[in-house]
């Protein structure tokens, strides 16, 4: 079976979510994918290069593609609702695992900080578009983002219905309804 770089990255994110950073050792990844180390080295010079690409893949697929999938022509409330639904319905194990790994790995912490900054800026821009004072939008964006991160951390202790109810409450509050 011929694997692509994307296959390796997707498998790595799944392995990380299931078993933590130890699952990202080359031999464990190769065993998981039922391939030889030669397959790994065809794409990556070493594990560090793989981790860098894995983090870039996460950034692209879990942030950039999500934002780019929202049409700027749609009303801001619709974009917020679409973003909230997409985030609530996603598998959060990868996000939780990356944040946990970031506590002990500076390179991962840096990647998480970049993603957090981009996400916060996007949320703040949406809030500005909703009519909030630009001075307040970054603090409000942090509040909303903290709610999302908290919901992710709760995992299975929070149902999708409860998450959506929390999002709905925040949307009513943001809309002054």
UniProtKB/TrEMBL annotation:
The protein depicted here goes by the name Bacterial regulatory protein, tetR family
Q: Its Gene Ontology molecular function terms?
A: DNA-binding transcription factor activity; transcription cis-regulatory region binding
Ranges annotated as DNA-binding: 25-44
- PROSITE patterns listed in its UniProt record: HTH_TETR_2
Q: What is the lineage of its organism?
A: Bacteria, Pseudomonadati, Pseudomonadota, Gammaproteobacteria, Oceanospirillales
Record field: transmembrane: none
Record's keyword terms, sorted: DNA-binding
Q: For the HTH tetR-type domain, which residue ranges apply?
A: 2-62
**What organism does this protein naturally occur in?**
Nitrincola nitratireducens
